[in-house]
Structure formats: C-alpha cells, structure tokens
Hints:
Elements: H1 19-40, H2 44-48, H3 51-60, E1 67-70, H4 77-82, H5 120-133, E2 140-145, H6 152-164, E3 169-174, H7 185-195, H8 197-211, H9 218-234, E4 246-252, H10 256-268, E5 274-279, H11 287-291, H12 312-326, E6 330-334, H13 344-349, E7 354-356, H14 361-373, E8 377-383, H15 384-387, H16 391-399, E9 406-410, H17 427-432, E10 438-440, H18 445-458, E11 462-465, E12 489-492, E13 497-501, H19 505-518, E14 523-527, E15 530-532, H20 536-545, E16 548-556, H21 561-571, E17 578-584, H22 594-600, H23 605-615, E18 628-629
Parallel strand pairs: 1-2, 2-3, 3-5, 4-5, 6-7, 6-8, 8-9, 9-11, 10-11, 13-14, 13-16, 16-17
Antiparallel strand pairs: 10-15, 12-14, 17-18
Helix pairs in contact: 3-10, 5-6, 8-9, 12-18, 14-16, 19-23
Thiamine diphosphate is lined by residues 46, 72, 74-75, 116-117, 145-148, 173, 175, 177-179, 282, 336, 359, 361, 386, 389.
Amino acid sequence: MARLLDKIDSPSDLKGLTRGQLKQLATELRQELVTIVTTNGGHLASNLGAVELTIALHRVFDSPRDKIVWDVGHQSYVHKLLTGRRRQFASLRQYGGLSGFTSRDESPHDPFGAGHSSTSVSAALGMAKARDLSGDDYHVVAVIGDGAITGGEALEALNQVGHLGSRLIIVFNNNGMSISPTVGTLAKLLNKVRFDHRYYQAKEESKQVITSLPWGSELWQVSQRVKSGLKGLVMPTLRWEELGFTYMGSIDGHNVSELEIAFTQARDYHLKPVFVHVITTKGKGYYPAEDDAVYFHGVPPKSATAKVVPTYSEVFAQTVLRLARENPKLVAITPAMPEGNYLGIVEAEFPQRVFDVGICEQHAVTFAAGLATQGFIPIVAIYSTFLQRAFDQVIHDVCLQELPVVFAIDRGGIVGDDGKTHQGTFDISYLTLIPNLIVSAPKDENELQHLLYTAVKAGRPMAIRYPRNSGVGIELDTDLHEIPIGKGEILRQGDDVVILAIGNTVIHAFNAAQELAANGIEATVVNARFVKPLDAELITGLASQIKRLVTVEENVLSGGFGSSVTDLLQKSGISDIQVRSIGIPDEFVEQGTQAILRSKYGLDAKGIAQRVLAMFSIPQPQECSSGKSK
Ligand SMILES: Cc1ncc(C[n+]2csc(CCOP(=O)(O)OP(=O)(O)O)c2C)c(N)n1
C-alpha cells in the first residue's frame, strides 16, 4: 500500500488529512524513524516521543512563516520528514547528508540551528522581539524538553520572557527524561503533574466542562482558575502564571486532536506568553525504546563494529572507581552524561560521591570549585564540546584560584556523526591560554589511567582530554603511577624528521613513521603528553639537532599544540628549522565517520606520512588538504 508519508512534501500537505489518516501517518513516521535511525544511528527515543507533537505543530502553525525552534534539535527528525526533507532522510548523520540536529543551512523550516541544549527560549524570544520591532505578526514557538529546561540558559531566558511579556509560545515536552531520568528539584516539580492521580482525575472531570465553554469567555476563565487551583495542589510553588505566562496543560502529547486544540488556543491568544505543558512518553510506539529510553536516546549506527577493546570513557570510569576506593575525598561530577562517560559504575558503589547536576555545565564547574575549596578532589567528567559552555567558570572559579579540579574531557577531537555542533576540536586552544592550568592528552587508554592518577595527586587544576570510542587495545597496567608533569617521551628515534604528536594522534604518527621508513626517511616520534607545560627541554633539544619538525593534533591549528610548539621554538631562538603543523584548519568540522574525517584532514597515518614526504619534496599522488605551513 502506498504510504501517506510519501505524499507529504511540505507541512501544508498535512492540513487536509482526516483523523484516521493522521493516525496512519504517525505509524508510518515511527516506522521510518526506526528503519533509518537503527541503521544510521541517532536519537531514536526522543523522536518517537515527538511524533504527534510535531504533526500537531505543523497543522496549527504555518512554518516557515511561523518559527518553530527546537531545543537541542535532536528530536527534530519528524519535523525534517514533514518539511520537505523526506527524500534525503536516509542520509541522516552521514557524511554530506542531513544533520542530526536543526540547521539553518538545511531548510527554511529550521529558523535556528542547535545541537547544544537550552538555547531555544533565548533564540525564540529574540525572534519574537525582532518581529514586534519590525511590526510583523508571525508566531514563534520554542519546543523544549524537561531536561533542556533545567539548563541555566533556558532559565535565564524564561526570566526575561515573563519580564518582556512578548507574544511567544513555549511548548514544554515533558517526558520525565533527559538522557537519564531528569534530575533536580525543578524537574521534580515539573514532573509532579505527570504522576499525581488526584490532578488527572480532577482534570478529566473539569476538562469536559471547560472544552464545552467558548475560549476566553468569563465562564471559561473561572473554570480555568478552578483548574489552576487543582494544579496548585500538586505544584504548590511553581506557578507559571506568576512567572508571567498563561499556562496550558497538561496536554496528552500523543493525542493530535488535544494537541491541536491547545496549540490553536495558544496561537490565538495574544495577551501574554503561553506555556503549553505537553506530556509525552519517550520512545512511544516502539516497545524496545519505550522499555529502555536511556539506551535508545542515542543509538549507534548498524555499521559500528562490535567493541573488542574498552573505550576511553570506560577506562576513565574504571580508574575513577579505583581512585575513589582509595581516597574518600574524591568526588565526580557529570552534567547529564552519566551513561556517556560511564560514571554510573562509580555511582553504583559511591552514590554519595557522584553528582549528576543536569544539563548545567557552568554549574558543574563552579560546584566542583566549591568542593575543592573544602579539601575535596572533584573530577568534572565533561565532553569537550560542552565544556565550551563553562569557559569562564574554568578561568574565574577554578584556575584563577588555583583550585585542584580535574577536568576529564571526553570526546576531545573529531567525534564523527554528531557533526559541527559536537566536534571537540577547540579544547586545546581554549584551555592552553588559561594560566595555572595543566593541559594533557594521553596517547592511549593505559596512559589515561596514569594521567588521571597524576591529576588527582597534582593539587592544581589539570585537564586531560581523550577521544571518543575505543582505546588502542593496549593492556592496562595494574599499578598506577604519576607521570612527571610537562614531560613527553620519545617513542622512536630517527635522524631525518621529528614528529611531535599529542593524544590520539600519537599512534597515527607512530604508524606514519613506519611508512616513512619504507621510503628511506627515519623519523623520531614524540608523545608530547602535555600541551601545557610543554616539554621544552625535549623539544628544543630535538629541534636543535633535526631540522625538520612536524606537529600533529586533533584540534584547530589556531592556538593549538602546533602553535604552542612554534611559539616555544621562536622564544628559544630556533629559526633554522622547517616546521609543519597538521591539525584542523580554520573551519567547523562537518559530520562523517571519524575515519573519513581523519583522512580528510590528513590526521591518519597516511596523511601524516604524505605531509612529511612533501617536506622532502618526494612527489605524492595527492597532497592532503589540511594544515598550514609555518
Ligand atoms: C549543553 C549540552 N549538554 C549536554 C547535551 C547532551 N544532550 C543531548 S539531548 C540531552 C537530553 C535532553 O533532554 P530533554 O530536553 O528532556 O529531551 P528528550 O530527549 O528527553 O526529549 C542531553 C543531555 C547537549 N546536547 N548540550
């Protein structure tokens, strides 16, 4: 049977569908989501839960004239399918394909790009204000989840929405889950309405009365007040009305008719910002995802090879567990990513010493600083891309006061399919410029455990950045030891060229040296281990003897490891040397597998060998595109 979905080329195609057809469409959308997302990888459960919500939004609002701003953007797949991107949907998260988030480049139906959480209300308020200032009259809708709404930026924006009183609709998609169950008192308060049976029972009874009354009439308003009073019973302190909103809810987020009524009322109400509280089930309609919404929040692609060696994240968490057993002052903090960084295994044994603070990176860092002032050793486990949020907290609250906080920076470098918003390609640059901070990166998972041990002993702020995915498969030492701070190591000796590599690029540099040897070029390969402080003695010593030097890093070249090395050479008066820096040029790295992208930027063994051969004027079949010559 022909699919209804195949006839939807734009939201206007939804408008003439019957209730029965909408039900069928919802089923087809779920089938499409499951087929493509289980193949390509991506955010499955969040999208399954937003099917009816998205259909109803596009039937009531007139996108792209009306602006629908999705928070994070990870739940926008149905929106993509309904807004003219159905034919490209099979390319989701592939190199050159559709993004897994919203993107202004991709469609006029994406008025704001996202990937990082809690930006929707600010962006939507900006659009609403721009509309008012230009005398326009379109609608602006922010769709935000119960995880994202706990992020500081969202709270800052809500504060201003109430203050400005702009005409803006916030659709609160409450499924009780962030990636894991949403944490915090605010989340608990918002969630109360999901579970309080007194409210549901009373709401059902009052709903019949209210829906029979004309919207906005005096009787309607009285009934609404009675309903709000009921809400007050179960939500005693959080009053959206007091924050300046008209509150509507709670709405069954899987009932298109009920959603449409609510959205239409919100759309036609022009007096105040409206907060529409929608209750959804994460993973709805696909039993495995409903049953385990945490796993199905983000699934790997089918092509992902079965894990044979532990990931860096797993080795990190196992090491934290060991260290926590030895040291009662050690605590660990995660901003909403206990699955991604495996801290769950530590929490299982030390529930009092692991803190999931919600999607609150800034708070995570300053909270750690506070703990450190009182003699605790906090390990902030955070993805590189999300630590960007807490740049000032790293500077102002930790490093300026020289507090011994350990930053365990996961997903440093190229992360792959999540694309531009998630690549961890800036951390070396934005961390090395901060005084008092030690910045390191292990060459493999074994070195990661020793660096973590070193950081816990350091008594100063220290960052360790490591990549996404499996380690190199090396055996883990049973005893941990301190690595002298600022000391690199020579892995291979050769007289023709020095390759200085940092972090996960070390193994590629080492393999490149084997390829170079086959071409008669002998390379010294150095595992730098520290970007700050650099091993000045080792580097200047080698640079004085060998007149060709290459740096390699999975980070932007601007302000990165290579840049620190060239600064050092310059300060040391070493100028009679040919230097090349391999890294990410001045651009945002698109989505694609890590292998594709490493090859693109010449960061794999082949690319590194090609760059070195070019220094010797040995002709290459193709010159790689990355890196700049110095
Ligand atoms: C700043 C930031 N921190 C962490 C993340 C990782 N992340 C992506 S989605 C998500 C959970 C969002 O929960 P919610 O808003 O409730 O949406 P749901 O998936 O439950 O629909 C998190 C923590 C992120 N995208 N941005």
